[in-house]
Design a protein that fits this description.
Elements lengths: L13 H22 L2 H13 L14 H12 L11 H13 L4 E5 L5 H10 L5 E6 L2 H13 L6 E5 L2 H4 L7 E6 L6 H8 L3 E9 L9 H9 L4 E6 L6 E6 L4
Length: 250
């Protein structure tokens, strides 16, 4: 987390050294007390860099008939999602993240049967945006398209039955968010390919970051080493999501 803060120190002149020495006894104790606040300050600054630009509330997704339709579908099927779909709480997080940051262009790696896509599309109904999502399994792709149609969000979703590894090569920017939730062994390829296409405040959201079936820690080390980006791990529910966003430039 310390990589989110750049420190600048100015060397004191000769007169300044005397003044510092005179204050050292009293200031030392105060400084040690203040240092206890540094971890919280660092966390606060990191949260500010990654947080949605506008706070969203539950009421923001209850105002229209379509909102109620989507809520009914997602709640009604809450215990039925299988095939590597995201948990309900993570879906809510995706929806709020998209709407809160006014994202209009989203790419998803790993459609599965469409649970995460429905949540993302719900957020996009508030921003006027669009989702491009990749799935390589024909049966899952077909089921996802049925779910998108039933939820009346098909117009917002370009659901592609193809390998994302090659499919992303044809994408153009700017892209506001990339949701990585499949083909874990090639996440470096996706980051290297899509990072140049991200908008000024664009983000990668990476699911299952702490699961043992892939090298999530290696991935975190990679994205945390990318200049100009900040990464935080969040836990909307039982799963962890790595949120990697461009740092604010001002």
């Amino acid at each position: 987390m310390t990589d989110l803060i750049q420190h600048r120190t100015n060397a004191p002149d000769a007169g300044g050294r005397a003044g510092l020495a005179a204050l050292s006894t009293a200031a030392g104790r105060t400084g040690r007390r203040n240092m206890r606040w540094m971890p919280a300050l660092i966390l606060l600054l990191a949260f500010w860099a990654l947080a949605p630009t506008d706070a969203v509330q539950a009421d923001d997704f209850a105002g229209t008939e379509h909102d109620r339709h989507l809520a009914e579908i997602l709640k009604g099927k809450r215990s039925q999602w299988r095939d590597l779909n995201v948990p309900y709480q993570d879906g809510e997080f995706l929806r709020n993240f998209v709407a809160g940051r006014s994202m209009r262009s989203v790419v998803e790696i790993g459609t599965s049967t469409g649970h995460s896509g429905l949540w993302i599309a719900w957020g996009l109904t508030k921003t006027g945006g669009r989702l491009v999502t990749f799935e390589i399994d024909r049966e899952r792709h077909a089921t996802a398209r049925q779910n998108f149609t039933a939820a009346r969000v098909s117009a917002l979703i370009d659901a592609r039955l193809e390998s994302a590894r090659t499919g992303v090569l044809a994408l153009t920017g700017p892209i506001d968010m990339v949701f990585l939730d499949g083909d874990h062994g090639h996440y470096r390829h996706y980051v290297e390919t899509l990072a140049p296409l991200l908008s000024d405040d664009g983000c990668f959201l990476t699911h299952n970051i702490e699961r043992p079936f892939w090298d999530g820690q290696g991935y975190l080390a990679m994205v945390r080493g990318i200049p100009g980006f900040a990464t935080e791990v969040v836990r909307p529910g039982e799963e962890a999501i790595a949120v990697t966003c461009r740092r604010p430039t001002s």
